[in-house]
Each structure stands twice: as structure tokens, then as C-alpha cells.
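Q: Here's a chain of 340 amino acids. Please give me its 3D structure as C-alpha cells.
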Amino acid sequence: MTHQVYLSGRPQSFAIEDGETVLQAGLRHHLALPFGCQSGGCASCRVRLVSGTVAPVSESAAPTLSRAEIDAGYILMCQSHARSDLTLDLHQPEQIELLRPRQLPCRVQARRWLCHDVLGLTLKLPKGAPFRYLPGQYVDFLLDDGRRRSFSLACAPNGETVELHIRVTPGGRFAHWAAHEMPDKAILRFEGPLGAFYLREDETRPILMVAGGTGIAPIRAMLQQHLGTSARPVHLFWGARAQRDLYLDDELRQWAALHPEFHYTPVLSDADAGWTGASGLVHSSVLAALPDLSAFSAYLSGPPAMVRAGKDAFVGAGVDPDHLHYDSFDYAHQTWPSLG
């Protein structure tokens, strides 16, 4: 049976057939919808269900949504089948319509170690085909064997290059190749921009940013564009294991010195001897410093366990789910299918 899906506040609508997820149907109709892994892991396709009824793909169809998000009416489009006509609130800026994902080549311009296990890549973009994105979004590298590997864009758009932060681990085949075997000036191919993690500039609330490990990459891109252009206060908490893992510490401290509206707190889970700063779990340090978060818009980026713990804790401290945005770096989804 065919149902109709309407987008709140927008003229577009589309039909969804039996067996299709909401996301599959929308992309089949060539709509610019937010999405990422398509497996329920990243929550990029999180939208509010204004009216209608959906059925989950499976019993664990929305593993990344907290109880507070579900109670607030949120669903994952990639994990939902329509059981009636639907109305959805995408809760995204209109300019996202101009940022449809596409495939582009790029050339490796530079690579350098940012710390003992994080490689920085600078990629030269092709001329004549501007690559536009919102700071916070990510790209998928398209590998020769059909696999994909996702990395957040670590800089604000400049029209010529993009930067990536790649954690090099023993089991990371692509990361190991990029660090040790990739030829100089290698040509790579990527698809993007992807994801729905970006700064909501239409909001006026003070901003809470929480990053874990290389989850600092999309946060850095947001800050590069935001600082100096807005008076909205920002407080960043960056969690890492030890001091040597705080590979952007100098840069962030410089930004805090230059911009009085920006506050930066590094947090170490395995603090070095002599460390006098915050230690323990990063979300616990947030609540110790800011026990009432009801006035904030919150942005979380990093490992799934950190994001889940942070979401639950921050909603409990007053964050409205409508003002809760996150990017969960789920390394289990290294092979994501092409769709549409």
C-alpha cells in the first residue's frame, strides 16, 4: 500500500511503497534528505514524526536514539516503514537542499602526524566543481574494493582544500595504508557532504560542545567558522586519554585567549602525573562545571559510548532533545552500502 510523506513547512512530499524505508523512498524521489550510515548507527537521518505511524525495521531499529528522543517524537528514517501518511519535521536549514552528496576526486596535498596515532591529511579539491558543505559534516572515501571509510571534515570550507584527522590503529586498513603506504600526491575519490551534524546558526542559545578523541575534528570545523562571527558563548570540553592525545590543545588555547566568548576545558580519562586539569569521564566534567544545561544547545562528537552517556546525562540536566545534536563515530560501520 502506498502512503504519502509530507515535510513540515516545505512544499515537497513523496510517496512511499510497501517494503521501503522512509529514507529509501525519499532518496528515490531525489530529495535532499539528511543521512549517513543507513544502518541506524549514526542518527544522521533523525527527524521528528509530527503525525502518522511508522513501524521499525527490527526490534533494535533505533539503537542510537535515547528514550528522551523517542519520547520527543524522533525516528530514524533509515529504520522506519510507513504505516500511514506521515508528516516529518526535518529540522534542518534550507541551504541543505544545495548540498546534495556527490562523488568527486581529490589529490593528497600534505600529510603529517598530529600526534602519536593521529594523521592529518590535507586534500586538494578539483577546480571548476566547488565542493560545498556545512562545518561538521563528513565524507566517505570510495575504496577500490567497494568499501567506504568515513571521516569528518576538520576545517571550515575554503573552496580549495579540506582537512581530515585519521586515527591510525592496528586494525585500521585504510588508515595504515594512508599513513605508511599511500603514494605522495595520491588521487582519491570521495562522496559527500554527508551527515546532519552542523551548527544551527538560527538558534540563539549558548553552545555546549563535547568531543572525544578525533571527534574534535568536526567541532574544530564548526569553531573555525563560528568564532569571531557570532557573540554566542561556546564552551568546549575535549576528552582524551592522556596529554599527548590533545593534539589541538595549543590551537584551542590560543582561540580561547583571542575570543572571550569561547571557553575550553580539556579532560583526561587517564591523567598524567602532575596534571592539574579536569579528569575522568568527559560528560561528568561537563556536569560538574555546568549542572544546569537547560539553556544550552549541545553538540557531541566522538565514540558511541561517549555520545550515548553524554546524551542521557545532558537530557537529565535539562537539555531539550530539539537542541541536542551529535555525531557518533561508530567504527563498526566501515562498509556502508550505496543507496539511491
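Q: Can you summarize the key feature?
A: Confidence is low (pLDDT under 50) at residues 331-340.
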